[in-house]
């Protein structure tokens, strides 16, 4: 994917279309990449559920590191969601960043 993707804002969407249409098995690679990312998050949620079931939250340091890693993975997924520069790539992050405005005191400053 990295060989054919262009990160420029005016070319990103057309480079994704090029990958899906013109690159050999590009459509398959893109779908495997997207579905693999979704499967990765399903595994993370099962891991969190298992930790809650077995009481892993009692080990504060380990649990806190896991929460930090969860937020880092979510931030990485957010960036991957924005990269194609399509309509969903615009409106999805707009909704997510506007959710931050609900945070007391600092919310409106975070959105701006």
Walk me through what this model shows.
The protein is mostly helical and 112 residues long. 71% of the residues lie in helices and 0% in strands. The chain is flat.
Outline of this structure?
One of its GO terms (molecular function) is metal ion binding. The chain has helices at 12-21, 26-53, 60-82, 87-99, 107-111.
Biggest β-sheet, characterized?
Answer: none
Computed structural class? mainly alpha
What integer is the average pLDDT?
Answer: 89
Give the H and E element order.
HHHHH
How much of the sequence lies in strands comes to under 5%
Alpha-carbon Rg, integer: 18 Å
Query: What is the molecular shape?
Result: flat
Helix content: over 70%
Note the gap between the termini: 33 Å
Number of strands: 0
Low-confidence spans: pLDDT under 50, at least 5 residues?
Answer: none
Count of helical stretches: 5
């Amino acid at each position: 994917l990295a060989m054919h993707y262009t990160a420029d804002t005016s070319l990103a969407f057309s480079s994704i279309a090029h990958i899906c249409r013109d690159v050999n098995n590009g459509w398959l690679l893109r779908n495997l990449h997207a579905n693999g990312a979704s499967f990765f998050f399903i595994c993370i949620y099962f891991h969190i559920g298992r930790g809650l079931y077995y009481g892993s939250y009692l080990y504060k340091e380990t649990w806190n590191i896991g929460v930090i890693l969860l937020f880092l993975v979510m931030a990485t997924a957010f960036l991957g969601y924005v990269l194609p520069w399509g309509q969903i790539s615009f409106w999805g992050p707009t909704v997510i960043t506007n959710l931050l405005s609900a945070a007391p005191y600092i919310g409106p400053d975070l959105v701006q």
